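The data layer described in this paper is built around a simple, fixed record for each protein. Such a record has a labelled line for the sequence and another for the backbone structure tokens. For reference, a complete record is included directly beneath this paragraph.
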Amino acid sequence: MKSKTTVLLGRLMRNIMRSPDTIITVAITPIMMMLLFVYVFGGAIETGTDNYVNYLLPGILLMAIASGVGYTSLRLFNDVKSGLMARFVTMPIKRSSVLWAHVLTSLVSNALTVLVVILVALLMGFRSGADILDWLVVVGLLGLFTLSLTWLTVIPGLTAKSMEGAIAYSYPLVFLPFISSAFVPTETMPTIVRAFAEYQPVTSIVNAVRALLYEGNVGIDMWNALGWCLALLVVSYFFASRAFQRQLG
């Protein structure tokens, strides 16, 4: 499976590199949000930190990933509707290689997007006291988050009846960070909103990444973040596999 998956991964990555506007487009919205909140709203938001871009960056990274995984659904939808998926599965390759190629493409392309966002944040004053081990944990957590969301995107990519339907699900994912600790502390929110914000997955992941980057107390947030990501990964993988089998007839 490995060699065949690599070949299919290379096909998808070549398509992206020939038209890098996908990565640029995905990065633009989070970068614009970061610029807006830091330079327009940052002075009016009280987070208890001296550098608002440091507070903001973890949520912006999750927003970038949530936006980027939507293109996996679109690429799968195009492969299904063009008949390319049907031709692939008739070839002497393991059928799961087709899906894994799309999933790995999402991991690579989103990693590039995250790198672009971090570089812009550095220009805006982002600084971190994290050591190499902390950074490796951050990379692993963001990778797990990307993987879990990507398998979720596989489902509409295989089942949607239109291009709009294939990518529509990603909109709530992109805006979920707004109702979390990504932009402001949850303590400042009204009671009902705060209850939702404190117990949704983005808050745990944002808090864990923030603590790792700025030498905070990771504590229960890391376990909650891992639990959310693993649960979403298992459930998404199960239903994506079911959808793939139905697609093959």
User: Anything to note?
Assistant: The chain has a mean pLDDT of 85. Residues 2-248 form one domain. The longest helix spans residues 220-248.
